[in-house]
Amino acid sequence: MAEKEYVIDCDEQILGRLASRTAKLLLQGARVTLVNAERAAISGHESNIVANYKQRLEFKDKANPEHSPYWSRRPDFFVKRIVRGMLPWKKPRGRDAFKRLRVYIGVPAEIGKEKATKEQTKRRSETYESSMTVGELSERLGYKM
């Protein structure tokens, strides 16, 4: 059986909705490539979003700090980690699905813009809340774009 391949453009997509659709495709056996990860939107008030993710960065296990969860500030790794949270990571099925995921900042030359499709979910402009992009959040957390 040939695996289906999806190239999804994250531009103006709400990150949670995009990640859940991506996780479902991965669990069905498809290969998924996400492009323009830095342009995915996180809905909510900007100060609340930054405060929540700064708090996540500070989680430490007192007994053994190396066993603490790691959250990257880089936009592509950040989006990949969000998708990983929606997969059954501790089971072989979830780990195999995660290996089929590729996330890129921008659009790589070998993929090209004509291959990328938009998911049919609410756009950033269609929500009533304020929002910020993953790239903006990464910069606020200390990543240099």
Can you give a write-up of this model?
This protein has a three-stranded parallel β-sheet with strand order 1-2-4. The chain has a two-stranded antiparallel sheet with strand order 3-5. The N and C termini lie far apart (40 Å). The model has no long low-confidence stretch (mean pLDDT 89). 35% of the residues lie in helices and 13% in strands. The chain has helices at residues 15-27, 46-57, 75-84, 92-99, 134-141; strands at residues 5-9, 31-35, 41-43, 101-103, 131-133. It has five helices and five strands; from the N terminus they run E-H-E-E-H-H-H-E-E-H. It has one domain (5-141): Ribosomal Protein L13p, Chain: A, CATH 3.90.1180. The chain has 145 residues and is α/β, with parallel strands linked by helices.
Residue stretches low in confidence (pLDDT < 50, at least 5 long) are none
Strand ordering within the main sheet? 1-2-4
Largest sheet: 3 strands, parallel
Number of helices: 5
The helix-and-strand class reads alpha/beta
Beta-strand proportion:
5-15%
List the helices and strands and how they pair.
Elements: E1 5-9, H1 15-27, E2 31-35, E3 41-43, H2 46-57, H3 75-84, H4 92-99, E4 101-103, E5 131-133, H5 134-141
Summarize the structure.
The chain has 145 residues and is of the alpha/beta class.
Features:
alpha/beta; two-stranded antiparallel sheet; 145 residues; 3-stranded parallel beta sheet; Ribosomal Protein L13p, Chain: A
